[in-house]
Amino acid sequence: MTVMEDAAPAGPVATASRMAWAKVNLTLHCTGQRADGYHLLDSLVVRVGVGDALHVAPAEILTLTISGPRAKGVPTDARNLVLRAAEMLDAGAGRGAALHLVKHLPAAAGIGGGSADAAVALELLSAHWGVPLPADTARLGADVPVCLTRGPQRMQGVGEILTPLPPLPACHIVLVNPGVDVPTPAVFAALTDKNQPPMPDVIPKFANFAEFVDFLRLQRNDLAAPAIARAPVIASCLEALSDAALARMSGSGATCFGIYATAKEAETAAHRITTAAPNWWVAAAPILVA
Ligand code: C5P
């Protein structure tokens, strides 16, 4: 298994490919804690049009190669969720496949890079090997079930209870990651109040962008305060997004997002932030609203 610098898939020609879109928690309320330590969440999750690409080609044994701008430091062994997903699906049968991941998303960044990769690995290999998807994909990671969906979802439980939401008004997002690793378990552990209010029982269908943003403004990311306490640069990312209709952290951080009404506004903001902070990872993309 090798990490390559270029983006071209290695080895045999891919027979199937799929994008692993980033996930963004537009809200993330922590409403309790289970006896096993996992936290109960209430979160509005969307996918956005920036992501990794996974390619699969026939092979005798299971291999994973990685390239792309964010390949550096991504493990190619069993720590990688793509291989763990493949092994979960294979269930010891010894099937082969040559997987090639083109990594664009920063890892451990609160936008589900690893979980989205695992979800597309399950989808591609389920078709490639002709085996059904397992029921308990949350075992791979709490965000894997939501990454097996596409449109906006309400995510509850520890991530396994999903309710599809009506299509959202068209909107665009700018993602900003300052390049600091914020370990998810440490951020959850530092959360002092683990019993905060959920979102309203009913999430309405929003008539327009302004109505959607008004709703989001009343919600929270309960992990933002403990994440900022650990990595104060997150506050600088939020500050950089202050011209957005709404700026907030996603997941356990460190990636922050700003929401904009138009692609042009989002691209202008992304350009401004990249110019001011060339070492940050910045991406503008549409929200996948349905
Ligand atoms: O499931 P995943 O590997 O993404 O979770 C990483 C860590 O985040 C868990 O080990 C746990 O400490 C924390 N976590 C949690 N409650 C959740 C999801 C994750 O406490 N609902």
TrEMBL record:
Pathway: Isoprenoid biosynthesis; isopentenyl diphosphate biosynthesis via DXP pathway; isopentenyl diphosphate from 1-deoxy-D-xylulose 5-phosphate: step 3/6
Keyword Metal-binding included in the entry's annotation: no
Pfam family, one: GHMP_kinases_N
Entry superkingdom: Bacteria
Catalysed reaction equations from the record: 4-CDP-2-C-methyl-D-erythritol + ATP = 4-CDP-2-C-methyl-D-erythritol 2-phosphate + ADP + H(+)
Binding residues for ATP: P106, A107, A108, A109, G110, I111, G112, G113, G114, S115, A116
Keywords: ATP-binding, Isoprene biosynthesis, Kinase, Nucleotide-binding, Transferase
Annotated active site: K23, D143
Domain GHMP kinase N-terminal: 80-143
Residue span, GHMP kinase C-terminal domain: 218-276
Enzyme class: transferase
GO MF, one annotated term: kinase activity
Family: Belongs to the GHMP kinase family. IspE subfamily.
Function text: Catalyzes the phosphorylation of the position 2 hydroxy group of 4-diphosphocytidyl-2C-methyl-D-erythritol.
NCBIfam families documented for this protein: ispE (TIGR00154), PRK14608.1 (NF011202)
Designated name of the protein: 4-diphosphocytidyl-2-C-methyl-D-erythritol kinase
Organism this protein belongs to: Sulfitobacter indolifex HEL-45
